[in-house]
């Protein structure tokens, strides 16, 4: 699964749950603002309204500024919920070995 802000800049999903995600983006977002995320789930684009809850500037390995953006999904569509639940199931055996 990957995501794009409405400004069409790619963002990496660092962490995701059925309630929200932590995104790594080259562009900051405005806290307390609703963004439309474009997620690709099983090859299909799905739009999700997400409320920006926090933004933190960080530096990547090359020293470039990036932004860690915490978003909360507003009523995520069923395909997103199912994809996140499937990811959790696939990851469960690995977590059990830790």
N-end to C-end Cα span: 24 Å
Strand proportion: over 45%
Mass-distribution shape: globular
- Identify the CATH homologous superfamily: predicted glycosyltransferase like domains
CATH architecture: Beta Barrel
User: What is the ordering of alpha helices and beta strands?
Assistant: EEEEEEH
Number of strands: 6
Mean pLDDT: 84
- CATH topology (level 3) name: Thrombin, subunit H
The Rg value, from CA coordinates, equals 14 Å
**Overall tally of domains:** 1
Q: What is the top-level CATH class?
A: Mainly Beta
What does this structure look like?
The chain has a single domain, classed as predicted glycosyltransferase like domains (Thrombin, subunit H, Beta Barrel). It contains one helix and six strands, in the order E-E-E-E-E-E-H. Strand 2 and strand 3 form a beta hairpin. The C terminus is likely disordered.
Short description:
By secondary structure, this protein is α+β, with helices and mostly antiparallel strands. The protein is 20% helix and 49% strand.
Based on the model shown, name its key terms:
98 residues; six-stranded antiparallel β-barrel; 6 strands; globular
């Amino acid at each position: 699964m990957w995501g794009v802000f409405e400004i069409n800049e790619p963002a990496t999903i660092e962490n995701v749950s059925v309630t929200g995600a932590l995104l790594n983006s080259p562009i900051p977002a405005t806290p307390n603002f609703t963004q439309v995320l474009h997620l690709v789930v099983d090859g299909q684009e799905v739009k999700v309204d997400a409320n920006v809850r926090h933004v933190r500037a960080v530096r990547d390995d090359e020293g470039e500024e990036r932004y860690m953006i915490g978003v909360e999904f507003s009523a995520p569509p069923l395909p997103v919920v199912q994809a996140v639940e499937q990811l959790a199931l696939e990851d469960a055996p690995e977590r059990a070995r830790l």
